[in-house]
Amino acid sequence: MPSKISLSLIFLLVATSLANSEGENDWVNQLEQLEKIAQENDQTQKAPSSRASGTSYFNISLKCEPKPTSVHQLRPRDIDIVGAMGDSITAGFGIEATTLPGIGVEYRGLSWSVGGDLDLDGSVTITNVLRKFNPEVKGYSSGTNRDGGDYWFNVAVGGARSIHMPTQARDLIEKIQNDSRTNYENDWKLITIFIGGNDLCAMNRNNDSSPENYVK
Fold first, then answer.
1. Within its chain, how far is the Cα of 80 from the centroid?
2. What is the residue-wise DSSP string for 119-171?
3. How many CB atoms within 10 Å of residue 29?
4. Residues of the signal sequence (predicted)?
């Protein structure tokens, strides 16, 4: 490839030749030669650089990788379904209550683990965090028990204890299997279990209330 200096010399020589040439044919030939040199130089300038740039410089692929088959490679965007088991905390009892009767309202759409009301700026829930990575996540609860809210895969029951978890688990599995919006076998599921408060309240304080007895 000619250097900038050599190209400049060529243009200078051609221009000098044009000035000293006589006759129309000489002018035409010299102009054609000058145009050819200019075109070659333009093509050289437009040739793609062999130097890596952008994402190729860091060897980064922007293509989505296949969904993992192992939980050890799972990413937030791979979660397809959220669900929850638990007691009144997961059921969202009284989250926005401003009066004593309001404590009995189930604000499941605002439940910390599976609520799907608002967005992450309006309500910090696991669902709304996952939506930042996968807007199509399914299973979140919405609304309240006063406005016909959708519990979806929030099977928590107020007053529940750990002894009730197997029943809730069977209920949750049945709901996911029977929901046409889900693929039970292949969808990745994030299920939270938050329980134990009512177990503690139910302990007989006149007897042994040690941590060991609580676990039993």
1. 11
2. -TTT---HHHHHHTT-TT-B--BBS-TTTT-B-TTB---TT--GGGHHHHHHH
3. 14
4. 1-21
Structure tokens at 142: 């919405």
pLDDT for 159: 94
Cβ neighbors of 164 (< 8 A, separation 6 or more) are 157
The segments of the chain whose pLDDT lies below 50 read: 4-15, 18-19, 21, 45-46, 48-58, 60-62
CA pair distance 45, 37, nearest whole angstrom: 13
CA distance to 28, 85, 177, per residue, from 170 (Å): 91, 11, 11
Record the tokens describing residue 161, joined without a space.
Answer: 């204890």
The one-letter code for the residue type at 17 is: S
| Token pair in block for residue 124 | 């910090």
The model's pLDDT over 74-92, given as tens digits with 9 standing for 90+, comes to 999 999 999 999 999 999 9
Length of the chain: 216
Within a 10 A sphere around the Cβ of 13, how many other Cβ atoms?
10
Residue 101, pLDDT score: 87
